[in-house]
Amino acid sequence: MTEFAVSTAPADVVRRQYLASAAGDLDALRVTLAPDVEWTEMAGFPLAGTYRTPEGVTAHVMEQLGKEWEGWTAHDDTYVVDGENVVVLARYTAANKATGKAIDVRVAHHFVVRG
């Protein structure tokens, strides 16, 4: 196992989340989330709300995105780290399964990694 795979450095934990999500590996994604995780999708986003537990996050966010979007991917471009805070400038790309319309949008994610 590599040092990156077990690193608890906040940026490494977040990077493993993006890699697991891109690979469609929800088990690996859940491993990166704390049992008491609080994952908030912003107001105005179709899945707006706060989700708790690793299983809750993957069931109510990742699995739902997979049902409605083909090839949903969050591309992590830039990391800004300050202690336990990690801000990632990223892009979402996907195509809506119902309409076929493609998206390519810039987003910013804020993570707090404790422990």
UniProtKB/TrEMBL annotation:
Entry coiled-coil feature ranges: none
SUPFAM superfamilies cross-referenced by the UniProt entry: NTF2-like
Position of the signal peptide: none
Full protein name: DUF4440 domain-containing protein
The organism's place on the tree of life at top rank: Bacteria
PANTHER family, alphabetized: BLR2505 PROTEIN
InterPro entries: NTF2-like_dom_sf, SnoaL-like
A Pfam family per the record: SnoaL_2
Residue ranges occupied by any SnoaL-like domain in the UniProt entry: 14-114
